[in-house]
Amino acid sequence: MTTTEIETTAGTATTAEQVLDAARGVADRLALDALERDRANAEPSAEAELLRGAGLPGVLLPREVGGGGLPWSVGLDVVREIARADGSIAQLLAYHYVNAHNLVWVADEAGRRRWGVPSAARQWLWGDSVNPVDPDLQLVRDGDGYLLRGTKSFSTGASVGDVTVVGGVADDTGKDLLVVVPRDAPGFVKGGDWDNLGQRLSASGSVRFDDVRITPDAVLGSASESGAFGSLVTPAIQAAFGHFYLGVTRGALETAAEYTRTTSRPWLLSDVREAVEDPYVLATYGRLVARLRAAEALGRSAGESLSQAHERGPDLTWAERGEVAEEIAALKVVSSDLAVEATSAIYEVTGARATSNRYGFDRFWRNVRTHTLHDPVQYKAREVGHHFLTGAHPGFTLYT
């Protein structure tokens, strides 16, 4: 896909229905050459423009800054629709929604307007350089601002985003701070070294900050000091993961089903004329689709719960937050397990010839296998079990 090939799907979408129509249009466009782009392993610059042109980046931003002001449940539906066609671009958009929403969770009114107004007006994409398992970046006091120093091994969207949210520790106060770094800031170096098994177009390579100047108005605040409301950053990203996995799973099953209908041959011992009449093929699809429907229902419920918690704003309690987090943890467990299994099982219902590289069905498995390792799903299962047995909620971290 080149920039000149991009067609805007839906101008500026303002309602949930319009946004979902736009997302489906983008997904249909991405599906046309998903395999070719996956193999090219290039920076997703044109794909980012496709998202901007469809008006998708601004749909969750508050109306007060010109955004769509739509609930989180709609954003999660958008992520799921995009993932149906291209897991990498779904990840790019999912991370953007969470990163940009720090304007609501963490920033004050001045910071919200300073960064939110241009973000909504120009459909900015926000990158992410907050990964807490990397050594913390340092914010060294320099006059009334800071100098940002250090590296991050993974920084989804930083190379194609308009701005990137960066998490660092202030050397003068010891506080963890979120700061905004524009894409062209001097000293902001993108590694261009993302070359992993899957999610090849997620722009998740390393970045380095060589004394990047951080002015006072580029400091959003501290997530750890923003109360239960600010801590929704973690349930939100985990919910986005769950919907991303559901979208990839549905895309894999839909792609496999078309192959089964048109290309698969019935097994010689099946005594049927077509693969779609084979009872084992039918049962395999049936079990996977039934589980997907159940997982999608849980996804919708979790999305509504997240939206309702977000509507509570600063009045959200830690107990209320904990209940939402546990429902989303359950979604993470179910969607992760199903995605990994289903994207492998599609070969059982398509046949040996479907392993040909020209079909590229492996991209679905590669994408979910890569991303489900983001944080160990067993820890989410432990959280759900602990809550079920004792009612306990895990403490807030950028993973819980």
TrEMBL record:
<dbReference type="InterPro" id="IPR006091">
    <property type="entry name" value="Acyl-CoA_Oxase/DH_mid-dom"/>
</dbReference>
<dbReference type="InterPro" id="IPR037069">
    <property type="entry name" value="AcylCoA_DH/ox_N_sf"/>
</dbReference>
<dbReference type="Pfam" id="PF08028">
    <property type="entry name" value="Acyl-CoA_dh_2"/>
</dbReference>
<dbReference type="Pfam" id="PF02771">
    <property type="entry name" value="Acyl-CoA_dh_N"/>
</dbReference>
<keyword id="KW-0503">Monooxygenase</keyword>
<comment type="pathway">
    <text>Sulfur metabolism; dibenzothiophene degradation.</text>
</comment>
<keyword id="KW-0288">FMN</keyword>
<feature type="domain" description="Acyl-CoA oxidase/dehydrogenase middle">
    <location>
        <begin position="140"/>
        <end position="212"/>
    </location>
</feature>
<keyword id="KW-0560">Oxidoreductase</keyword>
<dbReference type="InterPro" id="IPR013786">
    <property type="entry name" value="AcylCoA_DH/ox_N"/>
</dbReference>
<dbReference type="GO" id="GO:0050660">
    <property type="term" value="F:flavin adenine dinucleotide binding"/>
</dbReference>
<dbReference type="GO" id="GO:0005737">
    <property type="term" value="C:cytoplasm"/>
</dbReference>
<dbReference type="InterPro" id="IPR009100">
    <property type="entry name" value="AcylCoA_DH/oxidase_NM_dom_sf"/>
</dbReference>
<comment type="similarity">
    <text>Belongs to the DszC flavin monooxygenase family.</text>
</comment>
<dbReference type="GO" id="GO:0008470">
    <property type="term" value="F:3-methylbutanoyl-CoA dehydrogenase activity"/>
</dbReference>
<dbReference type="GO" id="GO:0006552">
    <property type="term" value="P:L-leucine catabolic process"/>
</dbReference>
<feature type="domain" description="Acyl-CoA dehydrogenase C-terminal">
    <location>
        <begin position="241"/>
        <end position="376"/>
    </location>
</feature>
<keyword id="KW-0285">Flavoprotein</keyword>
<keyword id="KW-0547">Nucleotide-binding</keyword>
<feature type="domain" description="Acyl-CoA dehydrogenase/oxidase N-terminal">
    <location>
        <begin position="16"/>
        <end position="118"/>
    </location>
</feature>
<protein>
    <recommendedName>
        <fullName>Dibenzothiophene monooxygenase</fullName>
        <ecNumber>1.14.14.21</ecNumber>
    </recommendedName>
</protein>
<dbReference type="Pfam" id="PF02770">
    <property type="entry name" value="Acyl-CoA_dh_M"/>
</dbReference>
<dbReference type="InterPro" id="IPR036250">
    <property type="entry name" value="AcylCo_DH-like_C"/>
</dbReference>
<dbReference type="GO" id="GO:0004497">
    <property type="term" value="F:monooxygenase activity"/>
</dbReference>
<dbReference type="InterPro" id="IPR046373">
    <property type="entry name" value="Acyl-CoA_Oxase/DH_mid-dom_sf"/>
</dbReference>
<dbReference type="InterPro" id="IPR013107">
    <property type="entry name" value="Acyl-CoA_DH_C"/>
</dbReference>
